[in-house]
Write the structure tokens for this entry.
Amino acid sequence: MVRVTVFHDGRFWVLLGEREEAGFLRAVRRLCAEEPGEPEVRGFATWAIREGLDSCPPVEAPERPLVGGFKRRLREARAERSTRGGRSQAALQAQRELGLLHRRKERSRGAEEERQRRFRDRRRRSKRRHDGKA
């Protein structure tokens, strides 16, 4: 089951999709400049179910035991609803870190290609100078 949460973080409207399965949590988010309407929320939920949540890494989500009486659990549920969800934030952070690692690899690969290109150019110029074709 996918849970979709819509909240305003002070600057943007945020659509947050979460799915918990087999003790793991996956989460995706989308930022909106204006308050999203029903079609946008449904479209986001459909996208999250079909492809969005499958593309993000799972984060371990341990089960929380039910402790205390009815009123205490009610109070805790109300407090949890008012927060942004620590477990989903952890899942989003894992997704950001994965993207960061990917960008680092791409950047280092591009830098290595640039170094090799410069080296080939230097060798070519050196050979041309040696041949007297400056």
Summary: The chain has a mean pLDDT of 83. Residues 2-106 form one domain. The helical segments are 38-52, 70-82, 86-131.
